[in-house]
Amino acid sequence: MASALVTAMLGAQMGPPIFNAVPRWLLEPLTKMMMAGEEKKADGDYVTMRMLAPTIHYDHHLSVETEGMLESFGGIRAEVLLLGSSKSPSYFKIALDGLNKVLPHVERIEFAGLNHGASGNTDRGGKPERVAQELRRFFG
């Protein structure tokens, strides 16, 4: 599991920049330790990285599957809310820019100072209440 998370973090540029300089043989045991520590303190609705790890494959599969299909999203007639964060990897911003241009009924929000985990656990830098506030407003 730790090996898969390390691969995903490096491939998707989701970890801190320092991760690119740390050898993989060290990242894997550090990731295992992080996961074990996280699971010890997790309770209630806390979503651990071990819980999220199996879903990463689907994220990447969907990205590959929809490559080159940007213009086809122009046919979506529903109102769409695009959520992004200022500290997310640049490819997220590029994707949102493209969608923002082709979707006919779109609203875009960028959460200043947050990263891709904006909706996640607060101890990982997430601000789920800020995200929930925008979702309630949009769907309200």
Layout of SSEs?
Blueprint: H1 2-12, H2 24-41, H3 49-65, E1 80-85, H4 90-102, E2 106-111, H5 128-139
Parallel strand pairs: 1-2
Helix pairs in contact: 1-2
Describe this structure in a few short sentences.
This protein is 51% helix and 9% strand. By secondary structure, the protein is mainly alpha-helical. β1, α4 (90-102) and β2 (106-111) form a beta-alpha-beta unit.
Order of adjacent strands in the largest pleated sheet: 1-2
Strand-pairing-aware structural class: mainly alpha
| Count of DSSP strands | 2
Largest sheet: 2 strands, parallel
Q: Number of helical runs?
A: 5
Low-confidence stretches: none
* Average residue pLDDT: 90
Morphology: globular
Query: Order of SSEs, N→C?
Result: HHHEHEH
Helix share of residues? 40-55%
Percent in strands: 5-15%
- Quaternary structure classification: single chain
End-to-end Cα distance: 39 Å
Radius of gyration: 17 Å
Walkthrough of the structure:
With 140 residues, the chain is mainly α. It has helices spanning 2-12, 24-41, 49-65, 90-102, 128-139, and strands spanning 80-85, 106-111. Strands 1-2 form a two-stranded parallel sheet. Helix 1 crosses helix 2. The radius of gyration is 17 Å and the shape is globular. The termini are far apart.
